[in-house]
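Risk register update: the risk of archive-format incompatibility is retired. Evidence:
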Amino acid sequence: MTTLHKTPSRRVAFCTAFAFLLSGVSPLSAQDADNAATAADAAAPASGLNIPQNVQIFGKNDPNNRRAAVRVNGEIITGTDIDQRLALILSANNQTIGAEEKERLRLQVLRNLIDETLQIQEAKALKIEVDQAEIDQTYARVAAQNFGQNTQAMDAYLVKIGSSPASLKRQIQGELAWQRLLRRNVQPFVNVSEEEVKELLQRMQAQRGTSEYRIGEIYLSANAQNRAAVLENAKKIVQQLGQGASFVAYARQFSEASTAAVGGDLGWVRLAQLPAELSTVARDMERGQLVGPIDVPGGFSILYLIDKRQVLMADARDALLSLKQISLPLAPGTTDAQAQQKAAAFAQNVKQMKGCGDVDAAAQAMGAHVVANDNIRIRDLPAPLQQVMMSLQIGQTTPPFGSAKEGVSVLMLCGRDEAQVNDGPSFDTLMSQMEDERVNKRAQRYLRDLRRDAVIEYD
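Archived output:
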C-alpha cells in the first residue's frame, strides 16, 4: 500500500461534473488472458489450498443469470439498487459498452454496494449516526457544483439516466458514515511522534530543488487466491484509461484505498515517501502519463502523474491570476464550421477591448457575458491554457476556445501575483499526512475483517 493516502476521516470530497461516474472497460486480449492464467498457475502452490492444476467445473456459471437481490447481514441490496448505481456509471461513458463489459461493471457495482452496506452497518452498530440533514446538505453541495443552486435539476437528471436521488444519497451516507467511524475508532489510536516529523522535514530541506510529484493512484488489493483475477481487472482498467476514460472516476469506483473518495489523489509527495516499487516508476513519469499495473505488496497499483514540481522552489505555474472569462453563447443547431467563423469574429471584437476595465461594457454590447475570478493558479487551468497564460501580459487574452454546443470563450489576464518560494508543508500538515497514511492501512484491514465476518446470501 502506498503512503500518504488521505483518509476520509479528514474530509469527504465529491468531485465536480459527477466525477464519481466511470466509463466502461474493454475485454482483455488473448495475450493478456494467457498472462493472467500463467500468473494464476504460479500463485496456486503458495495458496495453501488443495486445488488441482487442471480443474474440472461441474455445472454452469452463467453471468447473465442475474440474481434479484443480495442480503448482507440480513439487509437487502435489490436489483434496482444495482441498476440505479450502474446507471450513474453508464451515463458518463462516451463509448458503446457491450453486454460483457456491462455485466462486469454490474458485478463491480454489487461489490461496492456490499462494502458500502457493511460500512453503514458497522457505523450503526457502534452508535455512529449520519443525520439525514447532513446527507441532504452534501447532496445539495454536489448539485451546486454541477447544476448551480438547483437540486431539482440534479434530481431530474438522475431520474432521466435511470438512477435516482436516493441512490446517490446512499453513496454519500456510506462515505460519511465510514469517515466518522474512522475518525472516532481508528484515528485516535494512531500516533506519529514529533521526532518522526522533524526527521522528515530535515530530509525535505536536504532535497531542496529535487522533484516532487502529485500522483493519482488506483490501488487493487490481491492475495494468492485472487491475484490473477485482480491483475486481469487492473489491465482492463489501464486499457480503458488509455482510451480516455476519467482517472478520477475509475479511482472512485475501483480503488480500495481511502483516497478513492478524492479520486485517488495522493497530493504532493516526494519519491522518498513512496514505496520503492512506486518511486522507481514515478521518477521517470511525465505529466499526464499513466503507468500500471504495478506489482506492490498486497496488490497492484495504477499511477497517473497529475503534476510535477521542484521541492521548496518557486514555480512559475504557481502564479496567482486575476482573470475575466468572456463567453459568447451560440444558437442551438450551430455547426462546427459556423462556430469557427463566429469564434474568429468574436476574437476580433475582443481585441478591440481596452483592458479589463472595458470588458463588461464591451461584452454586453456584443451579447457576451463575463465571469471574474481573482484567485486562480496557472497550474489549476487545463494544460493547453497553462502555456498560453505563462506568456500573457496584463490586458491580453487567450485564443478563443469552446465548441458549437458550449459556445466560445476567451480569458483576459487582469492581474498576476508571481509565485513565491515554496517553503514546503508545515510541521502540522506533515504530521497529518503521516497519520493519514497509518489510518488508511488500519481502515483497509478493518474493511477486510468486515467482509470476512459478513453473512452474504444471494437470492
